[in-house]
Amino acid sequence: MTKVLKNTILFLLIGVSSLFGGFAAVAEAPPLSLGSHLAAQGNYDAAITEYKRFLFFHPDDSRIGEVYYNLGLAYKAQGLWTEAVTALRTATYLAINSETKSAYQLALAVTLIATQNYDLAQLELIKVVLRKPSVPLFRRALFLQGVAYIYQFRWEEARSVLQDYTPDERLDALFEDALNIPQKSIKVATVLSTIFPGAGHIYAGGWRDGLNAFLLNGALGFLTIDAVLAEHYTDAVLWGGTIFLRYYRGNTFRAKEAVSQFNLRESRRAAEALLQRLQEIVNTQ
Predict the structure, then answer these.
(1) How many other CB atoms sit within 10 Å of the CB of residue 103?
(2) Is the pTM of this model over 0.85?
(3) Exposed e or buried b per residue across 109-144, where buried means at least 16 C-beta atoms within 10 angstroms of its C-beta
(4) What architecture is the 32-179 domain classified under in CATH?
């Protein structure tokens, strides 16, 4: 009986030791694994909670930079751009070596481009290029520089950067097209609309708006002149000094807007063609 009791106690001790050993193994597991697992499943809120928990309890851990990096990616996946930029900037500052810093800066640049902060993105990318990281990171920095320039319609700068990224002839031809896209002059539209209401819209390709402006201003002008000829001066002041003048000025302003929109559409069309070709190049690499 005593032997059986001893064996039972020994078995319990072994079980307890195994249990605590399991807890210890969990405690010693990589602290980022749970957050990464949750993020991989798309549960970003829970992942962010785990990352913040680690930051609170381990403020001096050597992996702090990696935690902030993962935190930034989780924020980015949720579209929380301000929080993502802040976390990725902190990760860059806390990076343990230059190669890691470059990788974090590239992620930061992508986020800044997504938020249309192109100049800030270029600043981060220039830092990466000047650091001369590994070839994959260097090439990615060139690629992102070109993308940021394209979004800004800065064709020459984008072409110069991407020539070091790829010698693609079709891409170069698209840059040539972008440099020669038709652009309308705001000054010309203003002069045309001043002389002949609606002409500025037609110059910008807006035939319907131009015709509407011509008919409306023509009708108001006729009513004004007709009131003067009929010696209805109060009506003439009402039609001419108030309503006609308002629409006449609006016609000139809208002509300027029409030209701006025309130029923007053409630039965007060129940018989309360039970005599509870049995507094709990336897919074949």
Answers:
(1) 21
(2) no
(3) bbbbbeeebbebbbebbeebbeeebeeebbebbbbb
(4) Alpha Horseshoe (1.25)
